[in-house]
Amino acid sequence: MAKEKGVTGRVLHDPVEDRLTPIYPLDLSRVKTVDDLVRAMGQTAFTGRQIGDAADVLEAMAGDKDCFVVMTLSGAMTVAKMGLIFCDLVESGVVNAIISTGALMAHGLVEATGHSHFRYDPKMDDRELFVAGYNRVYDSLEPEVNLDAVEEVMQHILKHWDAEESLCSWKINQRIGEHLARHAKGRGILKSCYECNVPVFVPAFTDSELGIDVALHQRLRKKGGRARLHFDPYEDFEHYAETMLATKRMGLFTIGGGVPRNWAQQFGVYAELLARRGYEKLPLKRYNYGVRICPEPVHWGGLSGSTYTEAVSWGKFVPPEEGGRFAEVFDDATVALPLIAAAVLHRLGYFNAKDSKEAKESKHSPAPVAK
Hints:
alpha/beta; 6-stranded parallel sheet; 11% strand
């Protein structure tokens, strides 16, 4: 039955008849787990709803057995102590490959070798921090001695590198992970990635402590009369392309933006050019899922703040009209990431499985000797 217009010309609808989705008050008395909280936030508004929606898309991505999930990382996430979350995402099988800044991996290596980061006191003078060897990352400190320890690991790995074998970021990160698996007791991103066969790519490798350490090692080789090592970034490019071309579906989980995000997304462009310019016969290869956490606004025009719908125009993502699923969270990753990751890992049963495994290992381990 047609509704009649009122005197102002409006036709007021019934939202239930129009099947609008209701939103609900967040009742903390009913929240027992992080997953409960995130699900409840998803039924609210603003950034809370974005976090809930992101968890749902990441869960769908992780549950799609034909989906290869790539995580891109930028920002000082390991200095910000998010490293073990990345370990969990790798060890749970949610993440199948990582593309990162080199700095993030270097600071993660600091953590994995048993060194610490520290709080910055605003009363400290930055000039005095330099003299004392305390590098400031916003509200935290990276002692220079930590980075000296990173160089020791890098020099140990590089001095045994065969000059006939080219360097590239994923091979270097794999060797670092192998070294940590043999010598480090604690957890770390590169250690987890090595043990789970997850490649780690660093497209802007020279822009990092790890890249500087390679440059320093080249000087040692020259001084010692040894052949210099050759770094080939296209080994990274081709290995990533071959990996992604072999997938059925692809998902992208992005923290921040920058080079890691763009390098991951440009694969869709590369695949389209291979087909359109006649290099290979293959279908469009676009990401089917996307979740990103980044506070960068779109109106600055930079890649970090660009939307997934914009990326559809470049052929990087499957549009929602064709089945693509996206979620974008405009928030600090140190707030949003723990909530989203904890909720999804809870839904996948990861923590229960991990607790059971640790309990079993503890049961079969020898009792400590009394002193």
